[in-house]
Amino acid sequence: MNFTPFIIILFSLNFLMLFLIAYLFFNIKVLKNKLINVSYEDVKLITETLKDLIVESEKVSEKLDMSIKEKEALLEDLVDLIDAKLKRLEQINNSDHLSLDNFDDKISITYTQQNTNQAKDFDLSGMSLREKVIFLSQNGLQPVDVAKRLGISITEVNLVLKHGR
Hints:
By secondary structure, the protein is mainly alpha-helical. It has a two-stranded antiparallel ribbon with strand order 1-2. It is rod-shaped and about 95 Å long. It is built from 5 helices and 2 strands. Helix 3 (129-138) packs across helix 4. Helices cover 69% and strands 10% of the residues. It has 2 domains: 4-94; 106-163, Orthogonal Bundle (Arc Repressor Mutant, subunit A), CATH 1.10.10. Strand 1 and strand 2 form a beta hairpin. Residues 96-119 have low confidence and may be disordered.
């Protein structure tokens, strides 16, 4: 799992917070220089400026928190999807007989050979999903067609063909 985008976002947000802190320190330094000859109006202006800065920093902080929570939720969803795919692929790889609901054990394959359409019926009953994928592939079907016939994804067909032989 690649967390690089998430880490880049966090570093960017940290940089933004550091920039805001530096800005506040700069304003405090400017205020300190003004305090030498301070009137009541100056103090009032400084107080209002500080209040505005605090409100603004709270808004930025809330936005950052929301953004981080959204990214965490997205990452959790991705991890769940990856885990489900890995389990499914392990089942295909490890089981000799995988039962599928709504699966037809007889599949008709049509292919063109020298401008002649020929149809072949294969009895796939008693074969595991892995064996069916390999068998159909060896009999001229492309991975896309095998995936459509068996009701699985093309990626799963390619993985079975790559690791199943």
